[in-house]
Design brief:
It is a single chain. The protein is mainly alpha-helical. Helix content is 76%, strand content 0%. The radius of gyration is 22 Å and the shape is globular.
Length: 201
């Protein structure tokens, strides 16, 4: 018995750092999506939303979460593009990848016959996002080498402004924040030795 307790204490010491990340519930939606622990908590939050959707025979909660994740994935390309100070093949590839994701965003959430259309509180912002996606889909990936770099910078600023406004729309980010706050209240995070023992079990 003493041997088992000793082993458990050793494991508590070894797993202490793990418990702080894997079992510590992120305090807000932004932290959930940013922290390494999101690999642990995000699927659980998604399962919570799926249950709510199934219970209410709706799908907007999961749709909104997927929309947020896709937007954030696209917005990561802003940093990649900004790291390139002049037109080159690497920048062209970055833009091609970004535009492919924008095409997916359009097909999954904005196209008239898509299975899970996204609802936004601002009709103006939704129309701007829809127009942006259609423009990129119709024109295809631009050949940046044929455009002035300053012109491309201005287009990029406008593009990411529209994407950010869509992400921060009340019916998108704020509604998901409120859902995450409810999720936190129903899932008190274990702390201290209890959290470590749970991680061992």
């Amino acid at each position: 018995m003493l041997s088992c307790i000793k082993k458990s204490l050793i494991r508590i010491h070894d797993y202490s750092r793990f418990s702080n990340t894997a079992l510590s519930l992120p305090s807000d939606l932004h932290e959930l999506l940013e922290e390494p622990s999101s690999n642990y908590w995000l699927p659980k939050f998604r399962y919570y939303l799926q249950n709510l959707d199934d219970k209410n025979k709706q799908s907007w909660r999961i749709t909104t979460l997927d929309f947020i994740l896709k937007l954030r994935q696209i917005l990561e390309y802003d940093k990649l593009e900004s790291s390139q100070k002049f037109m080159n093949e690497k920048l062209q590839n970055i833009v091609n990848e970004r535009n492919q994701l924008i095409g997916e965003l359009y097909s999954e959430f904005l196209k008239s016959d898509c299975l899970h259309p996204i609802a936004m509180s601002s009709a103006f912002n939704r129309e701007r996002l829809l127009a942006l996606c259609r423009d990129i889909m119709n024109k295809g990936a631009p050949r940046l080498f044929n455009e002035k770099f300053d012109d491309e910078l201005e287009k990029r600023r406008r593009l990411y402004t529209i994407l950010n406004e869509a992400l921060n729309d009340f019916s998108v980010w704020q509604k998901m924040e409120k859902l995450y706050e409810k999720y936190i209240r129903t899932n008190p995070s274990p702390s201290g030795a209890l959290a470590v023992l749970l991680s061992i079990l």
